[in-house]
C-alpha cells in the first residue's frame, strides 16, 4: 500500500497519539490495581451495603478471573508499551517497526509459553 507524504504524516500522528494516551492510561490503571488491590477491596467493603454498584464491583474484583486478568495485563502491557514507543519515534519506518513487532511478538509468546502471570498468581 502506497501513501502520499501527507497521508503518511496523518497516519503517523494518529498512531502516535493513540499509543501515547491509550497504553499509558491502561498501564497506569493496571499498575494501580496491582499495587493497591487489598486497600481497594477494603475500601469497597466499607461502603454502604445498600450501594448496588459497590456490591457489583466487589463481586467482580474478588473473582479469580479479575485477579488473573490483572496479572496477565501486568506482564503483557510493558511489552506492548515498548512497541508503542517504536511507533512514537517520529515517522513510521517499516525497517524500524518490523523488528520491534517481531521482538514484541517473541516476548509475548515467551510469556504465554512459560505462563509467567499464572506462576506469579500461584505464589
Polypeptide structure, described:
By secondary structure, the chain is an all-alpha fold. The protein has one domain (5-122). The protein has 6 helices and no strands. The protein has helices spanning 5-35, 37-45, 52-61, 64-88, 94-114, 116-122. The chain is elongated. The model has no long low-confidence stretch (mean pLDDT 78).
Break the fold down into its secondary structure elements and pairings.
Layout: H1 5-35, H2 37-45, H3 52-61, H4 64-88, H5 94-114, H6 116-122
The succession of helices and strands, N to C, reads HHHHHH
- The residue ranges in which pLDDT falls below 50 over 5 or more consecutive positions are none
Task: Work out the strand percent.
Answer: under 5%
- Tell me the count of domains: 1
Distance between the ends: 48 Å
Nearest-integer average pLDDT: 78
Structural class: mainly alpha
Number of helix segments?
6
The share of residues in helices is over 70%
How many strands, which pairing sense, and closed or not: the largest β-sheet?
none
Describe the global form: elongated
Q: What oligomeric state do the depicted chains represent? A: single chain
Radius of gyration: 19 Å
Give the beta-strand count: 0
Q: Which properties best describe this structure?
A:
123 residues; mainly alpha; 84% helix
Summarize the structure.
By secondary structure, this protein is mostly helical. It is built from 6 helices and no strands. It has one domain.
